[in-house]
Amino acid sequence: MIYLPLISILLLVGPALAAISMTRSLTTRGHLLLLGICILYGIFPFLVTWGGMGLAERFGCSAEAVRFICPSSSWLGDVISGMFMAHWLAIFAIPSAIFGAIGLLISLILKVKRSDVNTPVIPRAIFHRSRHKVFAGVCYALSQLWNLPVMGVRIVTVILAIVIPGFIFLYFWCWLAFPIEPRSQQQPVGEQS
């Protein structure tokens, strides 16, 4: 039950970084920072495996099949075994990082082309988070997108956050991806729905 949300999160990290760069008007430094994070995410499972091999050598642990046995403590062998098996996460991390890097590079190229024309860069988001929000304004943005009542979207969001492990990461990604509405589009406080 927990593996499907975990695999979904691992597969969506790179595209989520690319979506953040496309929906927000980031600077070139911001694009390069997200590209570096995306590349680091792709090689992270191998770095963890390499670190586990170094720990096994340092503490004199021996490998038996897929488990490491350490003379000093048994828990260290379990930790090193887990670190050694982390390279299997690369099955999900590398494709995600490749798609994310491609999206980030496309977004960076489009930003550079727009800045060459000397036109102002305007984020082209269809919907915005509200400044009059309960938590982060994501439910307001989704209700605006789907033309649903805000309270219904909030109730469904709370239920999904309780039922599905890892849903909070999707909510956090939406919080990063949706820009805040401009001041000219704000409703007065008394007219909120």
Largest sheet: 2 strands, antiparallel
Unreliable residue stretches: none
Strand element count: 2
Strand order of the largest sheet: 1-2
Strand content: under 5%
In angstroms, what separates the terminal alpha carbons?
36 Å
Sequence of secondary-structure elements: HHEEHHHHH
Structural class: mainly alpha
Number of helices: 7
What fraction, in percent, of the residue positions are helical?
55-70%
Global mean pLDDT: 79
Shape call: flat
Describe the structure.
The structure is a single chain. The protein has 193 residues and is mainly alpha-helical. 64% of the residues lie in helices and 3% in strands. It has 7 helices and 2 strands. The chain has helices at residues 3-23, 28-58, 74-84, 90-116, 138-146, 150-163, 167-177, and strands at 62-64, 67-69. A two-stranded antiparallel sheet has the order 1-2. α1 runs parallel beside α4 (90-116).
